[in-house]
Each structure stands twice: as C-alpha cells, then as structure tokens.
Amino acid sequence: MLLFQDDGGGMDPEGVRRCMSLGFSTKKSKTTIGQYGNGFKTSTMRLGADAIVFTRAIRGSNVTLSIGLLSYTFLRRTMKDDIVVPMLDFKIQDGETVPLVYGSQGDWDSSLKIILDWSPFSSKEELLQQFQDVGSHGTKVAVYNLWMNDDGLLELDFEDDDEDILLRDQGSASGGVTKGQKEIVQQHISHRLRFSLRAYTSILYLKKFDNFQIILRGKPVEQICITDELKFKKVVTYKPQVTHDSQVVSVRVDVGFAKEAPILGIFGMNVYHKNRLIMPFWKVFQEGSSRGRSVVGVLEANFIEPAHDKQDFERTPLFLRLEMRLKQIIIDFWKEKCHLIGYQPTDPNLRSQYKATLKDSGGSASHVHHKNSSARRTGGFSSNLLPETYDDVATAGFPNNGFHLQSTGQAQENNMDSEGLDEDLVEIGSSGIFDPNFMEKLSEENLALFSRREELRQRDTQLKQTIEDLEHELEETKRKCGQLAAELKVRKNQQHLHYRV
C-alpha cells in the first residue's frame, strides 16, 4: 500500500465528489498547473489498481468526513458498464460521528457495502479509525493492489532505501570511465531523479518552498536549487514573441557549468512551468555532441503550455523557437567560457591569448593540474544526492574532444569559481578544438525550416481567408449591382410610359 497524506484544508462532500469525477476542474489560476481534472485519477491508477480517499474538512461550523473508493478491481470483476465510485459522508454532531445522507439511505448502505467488500477495511469502525491521524483537517489517499512487473515484483522498490521510494530496475548508470566517475554519475541528481522519488521531489519546485514541507518515509525532503550548483553562471534574458498583439514576455535563463565539470559530462536545460518542473535536464543537443558538455540551465517557461501529463510541452512553433534559442544560448556560453573548465577556447582571439599564457607559464603538456588538488578523500555526499567532494584515481579520457584529465593520485576539489580562477594552472593540448557536428547543423536547419513552414502555412491560411472574404464581397457587390440595374430598368420603363401618355 502506498500512502499519501497532508494536513491541508481537506475536502467537503462536494469537493471530494469533484475530485473523484473524471474531467472536472475549477483550476483557472495563473500560478497552478492543474487544468483538465484527470490528474488524480490517472496518477493513482498508474500506481495501483485501487485507491481509497479519506478527507476531513471544516467549513464554517460544519465538520465533515468523507470516504471515496476508486477501484479498477471492483469495476472489472463486477463487469460494470459505467464507472461507479461509492462515496460515504459523515458529520460531527454533538461530538458524535453520524452518517450524512445526501440521497437515500439505501444508496448510503450500498456504498458502505461496496467499500467494505473491495477495500482493505472490513467494518465501518475500521474506516473511521483512518481519520485518527488526519487531525482536525486534511486528506489521506491509500493506493493498494500496486502494479507488478513481468517478473512478479512490485514496480516500486521500498526495500533498497528505507528513506526513499525507487522505481525498480531503473538505477543502472551509463557513462563514466573509472569507478570514481561512475559513482559520481550514479549519485548525481540528473541520474537519480529518473528512479528516486526523493531526488525528483527535491527539484520539483523552482522557488524555495518555505510554507510547506514534503516528508518522504519519515524524513523531510531537502530542496535543491540547481542554479546554486552552477559554476561561472551567466544570466540571459529571452523575450519570445508569443502573439502579435500580446504584451512582451521576458524569460530569465540561468546557464552555467555543472560543478562536477569536466569530470561529469551531464548537461541539459531544466524547464519549469508555473514553478513546477516539466522537463528535467532536457538535452537540446544530441547525446554525443561535444558542444555544451557540462552546461546546465534553468528557466521558467510560463508562455507555453505543457502536455496533458505535465511531463513535456506540446511541439508548437513557439516551443521550437524556444528550443532553437536555448541551443544558441548554450553555444554562445560554451564559446565564451569552455576554457574555464579545461577546454581549448573556440574563439581565435581567446585561443591566442590562452596559448600566450600557457607559453609564459612554461606549459606544454595536454594535462590539467590544479594547485589545490590536495583535497581530502572524504567520499562525503550531501543529504540530497549532490556530491560535496569528488575523487578520481585514474586517467579519465574524453575521446570526443581530445582532452585528458591526468590524476596525480590525490582527490581534486571542484569548488573552482570565477574569483578563484587565477589559482588554477590549466594546460591545454592543441587537439581540443571542436568541429561543428553535421547532424546538429542539419537538425537546426530542419527546425528553422519547420518553423518557417508553419509561418508560411499561417500566411497561406490568412491569404485564403482574405480571398474568401473578397470573393464574398464581390458576390455581394454583384448582387447589389443587379438590384440597382433592375431598379434602373423599372424606372426607365416608368419614365417611358409617362412620356407616351
């Protein structure tokens, strides 16, 4: 059984019926993502076959307790043609919990029987006991008959980590040459969020939540602010043209290198919508690209609408323009700052200055040495999955860019920032220049052509509409001309008769 519980305002009988109904939603807020009224139903049914809801609310002087059952098992085994959701309501009267009957007593008794037959609870008293830890107001949702995989094991893993809930068989890490690198990959938030509920909820909200708390298996979730983890951070303002007559939208894009760079080659843009994470570590470049390696970004894109499952955005021309703009932001950032993490500058002027600096310092090897590389081997990690220190005990090769990181047998500190850059001596080989990736160029051109095609389609539609309007106007003019000609003919005939008389 998977249990969700909150100490919020709870739902009154009308509210819980709206919650349990398909397609009902009153959310029209500019700050919340709810819209279609199907999220609770689809999410609980994805986790398990059955869900039972207990909710207690105070509305004025009325205290109500409601129970609702959404059971796929019940509907399937009884071969129901319609979706039947049994509901029970109670009220507190003179300190006693008494049934609250909205329809007939027969309907209330029938709902009670269905809930007792198809839930883990065998009596009305057991049902009411579930409200004891809810408090004066709040909601508890229990999902049971959880789904299993093909091997007959629960899809959710509750055993490997007592403080987390994991997706089974989703934790295998790829990437990393040495054991130390693979360990960093496995512990990094960009990898763990794919299968760890704690990791995912730690970056679920963009803004720091200070008026509520998420507690997972008895331990509070510590929020991670991705922008705080970036090195050499830069802020870029993007002003998309949403519509021709709309107000100008301004989007802040924070971009920088992951603090593990260049040891860890993770990259991607984290796109939020109304404070809620939609696309984590979205790779706007192809996986094998050397451009943008270790570059991470964060932005809140409220000007585009997410898909129904809130895990992606609709592929509209507006979204494609955002994708192209983010690519350009990453390319510009990479060209400007890639030498700060040990890559040869792509800009000719910077490259000349850098070679001169290397010559003055007597460097000639294609190695990276940090003067402060005597960090202690602690192996420590923060409570929310981001490493605090990083160890690498062997040579790590990056064949795509001709760059090698030579270990000196000591741990390297990754706390380099823009102020401390002068303390590090970086020596770069001549093979670190990146040739543009042909497939990426082709992809960019295709996106540009697609966007252009959409614009031409819109223009074609407008022109067709204009032609239809003109044709309609022409027909109307012809009709009026015909009427005028007929009236003129009648008047001429009348005048002709008058002259004859």
UniProtKB/TrEMBL annotation:
<dbReference type="GO" id="GO:0004519">
    <property type="term" value="F:endonuclease activity"/>
</dbReference>
<dbReference type="GO" id="GO:0031349">
    <property type="term" value="P:positive regulation of defense response"/>
</dbReference>
<keyword id="KW-0234">DNA repair</keyword>
<dbReference type="GO" id="GO:0006281">
    <property type="term" value="P:DNA repair"/>
</dbReference>
<keyword id="KW-0540">Nuclease</keyword>
<dbReference type="InterPro" id="IPR045261">
    <property type="entry name" value="MORC_ATPase"/>
</dbReference>
<keyword id="KW-0227">DNA damage</keyword>
<feature type="domain" description="Morc S5">
    <location>
        <begin position="195"/>
        <end position="334"/>
    </location>
</feature>
<comment type="similarity">
    <text>Belongs to the MORC ATPase protein family.</text>
</comment>
<dbReference type="GO" id="GO:0005634">
    <property type="term" value="C:nucleus"/>
</dbReference>
<dbReference type="Pfam" id="PF13589">
    <property type="entry name" value="HATPase_c_3"/>
</dbReference>
<keyword id="KW-0378">Hydrolase</keyword>
<dbReference type="GO" id="GO:0031047">
    <property type="term" value="P:regulatory ncRNA-mediated gene silencing"/>
</dbReference>
<keyword id="KW-0943">RNA-mediated gene silencing</keyword>
<feature type="coiled-coil region">
    <location>
        <begin position="439"/>
        <end position="487"/>
    </location>
</feature>
<dbReference type="InterPro" id="IPR041006">
    <property type="entry name" value="Morc_S5"/>
</dbReference>
<keyword id="KW-0255">Endonuclease</keyword>
<feature type="region of interest" description="Disordered">
    <location>
        <begin position="361"/>
        <end position="382"/>
    </location>
</feature>
<dbReference type="InterPro" id="IPR036890">
    <property type="entry name" value="HATPase_C_sf"/>
</dbReference>
<keyword id="KW-0175">Coiled coil</keyword>
<protein>
    <recommendedName>
        <fullName>Morc S5 domain-containing protein</fullName>
    </recommendedName>
</protein>
<dbReference type="Pfam" id="PF17942">
    <property type="entry name" value="Morc6_S5"/>
</dbReference>
<keyword id="KW-0539">Nucleus</keyword>
<comment type="subunit">
    <text>Homodimer.</text>
</comment>
